[in-house]
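Give me the fold.
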Amino acid sequence: MEIAELLKPDRVVSRLRATSKKQALQELARRAGEITGEPEKLIFNALMKRERLGTTGVGNGIAIPHGKLPNLDRLYGMFARLEHPIEFEAIDDRPVDLIFLLLAPESSGADHLKALARVSRLLRDRSACEKLRGTDDPEALYALLTDSSASWAA
């Protein structure tokens, strides 16, 4: 699964303003609601339900919040580069500034896991993250995230 299958240019937020994990997830849920047609509250509740199982702050300033929704017909991705890092209860206790949101149909099974693995592989690459942190241009962020020729895309 390629990032371009999950992410479209209008789903890249270059300077998300949030002062807390909850506020970041609320804002992402609002934007995801506009894209998916699903109620913002339903999306937010799915994300919070997942966070209660354990943080999606995976370390090195990265979070990959995700959730499953009953009425989705496909996977949706959204990327946000935060204006300022926020506390996210990450596994390494470091603040988060890069968030990749993933929403999946309840029936997605393996596709959801493949998408999570693909996003995780991209964001584990320090070079990729340095480049993402080096620009706040949404088009440049999208190009970096979807560059299938890059070393982290393999």
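The chain has one domain: 3-146.
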